[in-house]
Design a protein that fits this description.
The protein is mostly beta strands and 160 residues long. The chain has one helix spanning 11-16; strands spanning 3-4, 22-23, 27-34, 51-52, 54-55, 66-67, 72-81, 90-96, 99-100, 106-109, 115-119, 126-127, 132-139, 150-158.
C-alpha cells in the first residue's frame, strides 16, 4: 500500500499535486525547544554562532541530541515562536553530528513572523544509526525579543 502526502487524494491526483510524494516508511517527529532566545553575535543572522535547542524542550537536558537508532531521511523542519520575531529573522537549521546538514536544510522565521516550516524530499538528507541529530537557531545582533521561546521539530522518514 502506498500513502501519498496529499491527504485524501488518489494516486493520479496525488502525483499531479505539487510536492506530493509517496511516503515510503514510517514518519516520526522529534521535538526540540528553547526558552529566552538571545540576540546573535553578528548583525547578519546567517553568520551568528548557532545555539543548540534543547531535546524535548527540557532545559535540564541541556544541549542533548537525538541519537538515531535506524536509518532514514530528514524530511521536514519547523518552528514556532511565542512572540513575533523582531529586530532580526530567526534561522533554524538541521545539524547532524555537530555540523549543519546543508545550507538549504533550514527554515527562516521572518521579522514579525511567528512560525515557518520547510520540507525536503526523502533521500536528500539521510542519516544512519548512531548519527546525532539536532536543531540550532541563529539570530542577528538586532534581535530584541529576548523573552520569546521556540518550539521546533524535525520530521524523519525511517527506512530501516
Amino acid at each position: 500500500m502506498t500513502i501519498f502526502a496529499a491527504i485524501g487524494a488518489s494516486t493520479t491526483t496525488a502525483e499531479a499535486a505539487t510536492g506530493a510524494a509517496p511516503i515510503a516508511g514510517p514518519r516520526v517527529i522529534l521535538p526540540f525547544g528553547f526558552a529566552n532566545i538571545a540576540a546573535g553575535d553578528n548583525a547578519t543572522p546567517a553568520s551568528s554562532t548557532p545555539v543548540q535547542l534543547n531535546w524535548c524542550g527540557v532545559s535540564a537536558l541541556g544541549a542533548a541530541n537525538f541519537v538515531a537508532n535506524r536509518s532514514g531521511s530528514i524530511v521536514g523542519i519547523g518552528g514556532a515562536l511565542t512572540a513575533a520575531a523582531s529586530g532580526s529573522v530567526a534561522i533554524i537549521g538541521v545539524y547532524k553530528n555537530g555540523t549543519i546538514v546543508n545550507a538549504a536544510a533550514i527554515t527562516t522565521i521572518a521579522v514579525l513572523g511567528t512560525e515557518n516550516y520547510t520540507t525536503f524530499a526523502a533521500g536528500t538528507y539521510t542519516f544512519v544509526p548512531g548519527d546525532n541529530l539536532d536543531i540550532r537557531i541563529r539570530t542577528g545582533s538586532g534581535w530584541d525579543v529576548l523573552t520569546t521561546d521556540i518550539a521546533a521539530y524535525l520530521e524523519l522518514e525511517l527506512t530501516s
